[in-house]
Structure formats: structure tokens, C-alpha cells
Amino acid sequence: MNQSPRPALPAARTGASAHAVRRLSLSDFRCYAGLRLEVDARPVVLTGPNGAGKTNLLEALSLLSPGRGMRRARLGEFVRRDAPSGAFAVAARLDGPAGWVEIGTGLQIASERAEDQPAERRSVRIDGQPAAGPQALAEVTSLAWLTPQMDRLFIEAPSGRRRFLDRLTFGLDPAHARRVAAYEKAMRERNRLLRAGGSDPAWLAALEGTMAEWAVAVAAARRDALARFSAALDELPDGPFPRARLAVRGRLEDWLDEMPALDAEDRYRMMLRAQRQEDMEAGGALEGPHRSDLLVRHAAKDMPAEQCSTGEQKALLIAILLADVRLQLARRGATPVLLLDEVAAHLDQVRRAALFAQIGELGAQAWMTGTEPQLFEALRGEAQFFTVRDGRLFG
Q1: What are the structural domains of the chain?
Q2: Rounded to whole angstroms, how far apart are CA atoms 376 and 9?
Q3: Residue 250 in contact with residue 364, Cβ under 8 Å?
Q4: Is 388 helix (H, G, I), strand (E, B) or coil?
Q5: What are phi and psi of 155, to 5 degrees?
Q6: For position 12, what pLDDT does the model report?
Q7: 386 by DSSP, 3-state: which?
Q8: CA 199 to CA 211: how far, in whole Å?
Q9: 20 in helix, strand or coil?
């Protein structure tokens, strides 16, 4: 399918105050054998029955950022069933503050691989050139999303909140994605050596030094991001989306309240050395930024988010999302692309109208899905509407 509601991008790379997808192409991705969609920078509304392929489109867009996408699927799960190539591809052209950029990502199957390396890996190309990895996408794109699964963010395991915190952080500080990746790589190598009996103390010490360096950098970046979010949330006007208070609970983050970063680095390195036996028995490091947790409170009620009603938890998430949009606009010169899966169906009329108004005020490109077009009637004339049926789009 090829939809062109407005003229295509000019040849010159002109900056924009919103990151916006202008063209999306899919090949053997989920239920899409092939798709080419061209849109302008306005919001996009995708409606259709459950199972039609709406969320799959948002998931494809989420792969334009670091990480495993909004559903955290394995690479092989993205490949369309019976795809002859056994692989998938997602390509897009985006507008942004530095102009437009071409991005491609897909499944790369390695013919030869090193020990402890996956047989399948995700390849990334930026403006036609191979990138070092998905982390490079944080430098050129910005996306934020809400999914129905995130409605349980505050009541489930800390890992989801930690990923959410890191996404908020590298939205403001793109280098954070590389820090997290570097820390996790060193941690995996240390875990592998410990499983093998830790017979190379010098290499273990070197890896622990690398882990300590990146761990403190990750913790410091999270603390800086939360300080910015706290200020932005305090400035939000009173309305249907309550103010949230954010904090991070973690050993290293706490140490940075008490001591300089270099001292925290030394202390963590010594902890790793002292805990090798315990970590080997546990199958991994028992302490570090990979164990930290994001804490959220409803400010007006002074209540932990996990004790709030389902509607209040959803409203808190949207408040954080809107603060993220405002912060990225102020810091990076452009709003992120918003991926809002089934968001309207879970909001009352007042909050739905308030969300649409905020998106319009901020000038963000939001991709929104829903089963009922009536939920988006307020956006008629302000957004681009498509119907999705059986993996096909109709304008």
C-alpha cells in the first residue's frame, strides 16, 4: 500500500520540531508480507478489529529505537510465518531536529559466531551505512510508547520499571543506551567466567573494573534524568493527569548520594571482587544497576502508584509520558514519536480529550490504535486515519 496524504519530503534535509515518521516499509514482518506507507507529520490513527495487525505496525516502529521493541519479542518472532527468506526487514524515513534520516533494521543470521554470541542478531543501517548496533539508533531517533501491558507496570516485577526508567533516561541522554549495553556486556562476560570456575583472576578483575565504571555512569545518568523529570512534573498544570513523584532505589544510586562517583566506582569494584563466590552460586551479580527499581508515587495523595486504582495508574503513566515529551522538546529540540496502543479505550471522555489536546499542543506525531473509530472523532481533520484489516491498510 502507498498512501501520500501530503507532498513527499523535500530533497533538502530540513530540521523539524518533532520526530516524525514519514515513510514506513515492512518486509515479512509479523502479518505483513510487504507494506509501504507514506504519511505526513500529523498524528496517525489506526483502527480495526483485534488481530488485524494494528499493534504489529506500532511494534515495527518501536524497532527504530534501541532494545527489543515494545513487546520485547525475540528476533525470530518478528518473521512472518512461512516467509521464504526466513528474515524480516523494517525501513523508515524520519524527520527530526537534524533533518531527515533513513533507517533500516532486520534479522541477520550469522554463518559463524563466537562463543556466547547469538546465532541471530539484529542489524541496523543508518543512511545506508552499517551501524555498530541498535544502540546507535538513540542518536538519531526518539520514540516513547504506552501499551496495555504497561498498565501493570507498577505492580509487577522491577525489571519492567527499570527498562521504563532507562528508556526515559536515554530519551534525554542518547549515550545512556551505550552505557547500559557496555555494562551488560561486561556483566555477561563476568558471569561466563564465574560459571567456568573463575580460573582467570586477572581477567575477572579487569571485567569488574569495566563493570564498575559503566555501572556508576548508568546510575548517575538515571539520577540526573529523574531530577529533570521531577522538575518537569512539578511544572505540569493541574488537570486529569496527576503529578507523579519519581525516585530510583538501588545500591549504586544511593551511594552517589553519599560519595563522589570515583569512590562509588572503587566501592562497587571491591564488592564484586568480594562477592565472586556468592555471584557464581547465584548465576549472576547480586548487586548493581541491573537490580535497581523505579519508584512512583501519586503526589497529591502521597500514595505509592501500586496502591492507586487502575485508572489512576494509567493517568500517572500518561503524566510521565507527557513530561517526557516536554523534556525532549526542550533538551533535544524535538518531540519523540509516540506509540499509543489502545490508549483511548482505557480513558474516560475527559482524560481522552485532555490527551488529544496535549498531543496537539506539543505538535507530536502520535500513532494511536483502537478498535472503535468513534473514540478518535475529536481528531477528525487533525490526524490521518487508516483502517487495518488482515494485515492491509485502507485510507
Answers
A1: 155-306 (1.20.1050.90)
A2: 27
A3: no
A4: strand
A5: -115, 0
A6: 36
A7: strand
A8: 19
A9: strand
